[in-house]
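Weekly puzzle thread! Below is a chain. First person to post its structure in token form gets bragging rights.
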Amino acid sequence: MKLYNAWYCPFAQRAWMALVFKDIDFELIEVDPYDATKWWVKVSRGAELVPVLVQANGDGSDTTIVESNRILEYLEDYYPEKTPIFSDNPNQRAEQKYWMDYVGNKITTYFYRFLKSPEAGTQQDEARDQMLKGLSEISMAMKSEEAFFSGGRLSAVDIALFPFAYRIEALLGHYRNYALPTKGKVWQRYHRWYDAMLALPAFRATATDHADYKNRLVTHYLPYSLGEGQSNLTQV
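Winning reply:
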């Protein structure tokens, strides 16, 4: 099994964290997803994005998955003997998938809009407020007595959210001098979850050069903070 990865990409980090958490053997291949060579276009099935997971099959064919949440689902199905990140209850599993999509629709989009709005004003304020609303609602959906989203066990929802939660803290703190609220039950719950995720071995293993990981991300995302960078990240 091969994972095509870019160290800075939060979407790719989702897949990487799941592979590490599930203790699955894989080959990590670092690529520049923006270098549109014929080889990369073929490997990524024309998406030219990471992550890309490739599983070699016994008949000589490959199975290729090119979207991070779909990779998490595939790993769960392909390795049923490994530590689960989805509930075995169909209703709970459907709820988990809802919140995984919710992260992209209601949090990630507005995080990037906030980061890519260099001037204070309406656009920046609206992006911040929508991001806060998304984080607040997903925090209210977390089980209240345990560390993780679904309770005491890590789930795919946690993995889907945390790479972005980390970048919200690191990048918005640096470039927008912004910190999430800490007062109130909702935000106390969020920060308890955040601290548990920050200490998770699967995150620490994927935070390359961990002692300097935050600074490396800050440097990489400088163009985004100036309103540049990949354009389609802020499209709803």
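Puzzle host: Confirmed. Bonus trivia for everyone else. The two ends are 32 Å apart (CA to CA).
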